[in-house]
Design goal:
4 copies of one chain form a homotetramer. By secondary structure, chain A is of the alpha/beta class. The relative contact order of chain A is 0.16. Helix content of chain A is about 40%, strand content about 15%. The first copy, chain A, folds into 2 domains: about 140 residues, Aspartate Aminotransferase, domain 1; about 200 residues, Aspartate Aminotransferase, domain 2 (3-Layer(aba) Sandwich), CATH 3.40.640. Chain A starts with 10 loop residues before the first strand and ends in an 8-residue tail after the last helix. In chain A, the strands form 3 sheets. Chain A has a 5-stranded mixed beta sheet with strand order 1-10-11-9-8. In chain A, strands 2-7-6-5 form a 4-stranded mixed beta sheet, sandwiched between helices. Chains in contact: A-B, A-C, A-D, B-C, B-D, C-D. At the C-D interface, helix 1, helix 2, helix 3, helix 4 and helix 7 of C face helix 1, helix 2, helix 3, helix 4 and helix 7 of D.
Chain lengths: ~350, ~350, ~350, ~350
């Protein structure tokens, strides 16, 4: 079933879902299993232990919920808060908008802060909930050190798995809050999970066997590469992308350098060009999948996702493709200019692959 | 990563998750894709249309939710009811108990009817919600004809997929109720789906690409076999199993014939035997996965799941295994007796495989 | 592409190709690789070392040739013999007939011995070539101890891989013979392999990357189970099959007990029944693949292959299927009788799965 | 088992084995099957019919041999010639050298022509044998129109399959020659195949079930893209590569334009650089697999394979990688220059993907 076959690989550069390593695809290529037999709890135990490492927490309690990032958000909120509770939410892009919408629909009392993000915001006695969907396992993230109470991500982002697992990590303070939080929830209720953790069977309902083995393989690859090296690789690819954008004479949608993301770059196109046309042509002509601008930047930006299982030459292929599409739609780009700028940086900064030295 | 390798195939006879056809495993063996590119909506459109056939509805609206059966339940309840609404719930086994628990925790006003199930119950003006997790696509099920308002199943049951997709189908009356239902929900909110259905992009959040292609393959196989033939096959395997149980001199936990299930058989063991020991040995010695008795029948029954992608000889292999385990634990079974009874029935009733005649 | 879809698993009981373990299918689920990069020689080195263990040789030199068993035969002959050389060949079944045919067509001078096989035959100064296609890795086989000069097998037999790799092991004496053997050969020439062994690149032409990784996984599984346990399992399944045949009142085509094979059982059918009809119906009605009788026993016997990645309940499912087919074609079998006889033996002799104790 | 894990995809640009489409990997992800049951002959029939299309023959007879290109050569020679027969062989590169070596070792009487290749050579009454391993299914090739008697290719080249199938196509004249050719052969004997073709069972020995289904998928993709479009794509990628080489100031090892290959480009490096170091670094630092120079050009050239399942952005990623490696080893390349030259050409010449217009 391939409605839209094209020769060669699809170049997947949306900011999620991202490319799955062949090793993970292999690990998931399997029949179902009885999740009550000893093998699955034994596997789960290692996952719960190891997943904490990507949050940099030793004291947090992780939950692997069969859901998406949206569900992980809902789990974080409903387990820690009661209807009417006040939330101070920071508006910084489309997904914060969506999370705020969820917060309001779940009957919390939301104060939206449109001001700039800053470190000082987190000196407070309140519960500190962080949406790490696009950052955990790609950027420097330190749950314990930064005093975060609930952090969460989704399997289809930097972990490079299929969609379907929301990974939520709760501090002791968050767990305590869950004992009294009055938000109505069952599917997302951490206490159901905790009951089964205690029993050693781990699952209040059926998990995806395939995603469990996939997560095992994904974590193994991350630890083999080294989490710090993974983060450095994301920094390298992010910087290379930004240098290319600059070389094309285009603007990063993110205005301040300290806000740049190493997982996605939103590129502003000239006002006479429709960024959706860029995304459409990239896919139709070059088998390149770019991200659309969403909401108020629809038509004005396109996004290059550069997170997950990805390397330098994949990115350079994408950048070469973006150049051709820009030319296709009439933007006077100098072909090769972005690739040259990115390569100059990468040729200096890319380390040897450790296992091959 | 196989903690507990054993030679040969695992014989998976829990009542879910069930065996995945090789064709479906193949269809899911793929990289992620951009779900906003045209291919995924085109695929989704065919799925939403075709999935209605397994509910036998033409007027219902299906939702393919990245969740489990428990989540599908929650979706059915929170989209149609407001806190305090009265539910009449029928207590018929462990999973009805769990659903009732969910109903109570979601603050509905639940009347539990322990009396017998009967046809007359559904002559009423109330919304009619049916948990079809263990029956849809395996047993005769007719959403429209029976006036059902919400029916639901999970991917890992008769559809023979991995866990991770809750499939919910809502009547026009249920959809109307969802416009006014005051239960708090976001992740499970049908109205978010309907908004994207209208846009033709279908997904309020990221779906599992792999499960979409898997569902396509699963539906194709079901339609190739013929839904009526699938149901007849389940009836055949169910009856064969019950004949074996009888031949062993054991009792079906289900007491009345009209309640027999063609997807699972719970077998009562003599009081001097612990049914958990049967399940344990089956797995440890014969690579056979049977279901435990749950809750009040824990230790007293074991369950043979016979649903999903399964054929006669697989079942006979399982029955031969159960006989050996029964003997292992001291029950004086006549080896071969159950297989003989089941075979006598199957040898008479099994049709030729249509594609091979 | 499945011309002949049937519900449930195919029950594969031909004497090859046999069932592939899910672990091996996974290991082979991969893209091609540059076989001249360091990874492939590193992998090959472990394979050449470990494959010797299944021949029970320490001094032999193995060759992993991209061919079938027929090619492995040709490799054994053309590398050790010159046209006109005399071969004493033992005629013991269809495949010896085929090998003898090959020997004659390759211009050797073949003495066919139709007499009984016996131990004394191998006290001689001649080169001793053994076709182990259906025995190596399933039966007790000791290349060094028995003084064998060339032993060979194919990947699709007891190793439980896809077809495509002929595995040949040569003694020092055989290697020496290959230096002077005048038979014309290039593709099969061991000396081309030896040249690349010396270089450490191993391959005179392109190997199948997938089969190399598959062989790695297959060997890992065999060593995890323990080669002796693998052989014991084959003995157990062979004996169980023979007991079932006896219980059905049918004859084993192999007349003397010391000749019984633990990898395949050829069952003689009554003269009024066409064994091909049994094979045909098994496939058409029960999704069971049995082996045809070949050549002079065509129509008179059917074969049950019981080698490779297989366990007790798979075999019992097959035996139950054979019983039903026998009844289908009019043979007055008592349903359950063969399964009962086999189960009685297996219930006594099957060990616990070591990893699950 | 990944000895040398690196993040992101391997960029496979050796001239074979090449990248396998995900669709083909999926098709091969399966258990073994009984090749004597009706499904496999039915599949084989379609393959033998369809494979002729890639040779552009209607009268030829194809053989799908479980072997490599080297084996396909041997099949072509031994089936059509007798020892001592005269062969006029054209020496044009490393693989012709290897084939000539094979011809000599098979005891033919070989005249090696080192002169230039030209059209006039094929006006002759002799059998005309063509090694199309690196061209069939990638370049314009017309067996019937050009009067070719035996043409052959290997699965791991333009067909983009794993290694393991030699595909040989014989004209009526070649088949006739095979009736009298006295070269000794059994495994490669076409007459054994023809005997089974007549029986409708097709296989003289066990084929790889996985490669048969893989070939079916590969042919389906080629026909969906259109063979002419496949050839045009190879021409486009070949030209883009040559433009990049030129922009780098380097020389194509092939000296005359009419000899340029659209499947591989051998790049001559300056005499102070060791081309093996380029190949080594490409793999160690950028996960890029390039081809070594072989034999007399070892150390002097590296090769970029651009055949099989490949698209524009994959190639541009490779070219960007080559630029960085060239800089790594001290060659004063202008980063981005080759990509710019290739992009300028590709941006003009790449068609929309037909299924996506």
């Amino acid at each position: 079933m391939d409605y839209v076959y094209g020769p060669g690989r699809n170049h997947l550069f949306v900011p999620g879902p991202v490319n799955i390593p062949e090793q993970v695809i292999r690990a998931m290529n399997r029949n179902n299993e009885d999740y009550r037999a000893p093998a699955v709890p034994a596997l789960t135990k290692t996952l719960l232990e190891d997943v904490k490492k990507i949050f940099k927490t030793t004291s947090g309690t992780p939950f692997l919920i069969p859901t998406t990032g949206t569900g992980a958000w809902e789990s974080a909120l409903t387990n820690t808060l009661s209807p009417g509770d006040r939330i101070v939410s920071f508006l910084i892009g489309q997904f914060s908008l969506l999370w705020i919408d969820q917060q309001q629909r779940l009957n919390f009392n939301v104060d939206v802060v449109e001001s700039e993000w800053g470190q000082d915001h987190y000196q407070h006695p309140a519960l500190f909930l962080v949406d790490g969907v696009s950052s955990i396992c790609a950027l420097d993230f330190r749950m314990d050190e930064w005093g975060i109470d609930v952090a969460l991500t989704g399997s289809q982002k930097a972990l490079s798995l299929p969609t379907g697992m929301g990974i939520v990590c709760a501090s002791a303070k968050a767990l305590k809050a869950s004992k009294t939080a009055k938000s109505v929830r069952v599917f997302f209720d951490w206490n159901d999970y905790l009951k089964f953790y205690k029993l050693g069977t781990y699952w209040p309902y059926t998990p995806s066997i395939q995603l469990l083995y996939g997560l095992r393989a994904a974590l193994d690859l991350i630890f083999e590469e080294g989490l710090d090296n993974v983060i450095a690789r994301h920094a390298r690819l992010g910087q290379a992308t930004r240098l290319a954008v600059q070389a094309w004479g285009l603007k990063n949608c993110t205005q301040k350098e300290e806000w740049y993301s190493d997982t996605v770059t939103a590129v502003v196109v000239p006002s006479n060009i429709d960024s959706s046309e860029i995304v459409r042509r990239a896919w139709k002509r070059y088998n390149l999948s770019l991200g659309l601008g969403l909401n108020k930047v629809a038509g004005k930006v396109f996004r290059i996702g550069h997170l997950g299982h990805l390397n330098e030459l994949q990115l350079l292929g994408c950048l070469a493709g973006v150049e051709m599409v820009l030319k296709d739609v009439g933007y006077p780009v100098k072909l090769g200019s972005g690739v040259a700028a990115a390569s100059a940086y990468l040729q200096n900064s890319t380390p040897f692959i450790p296992s091959r030295i």
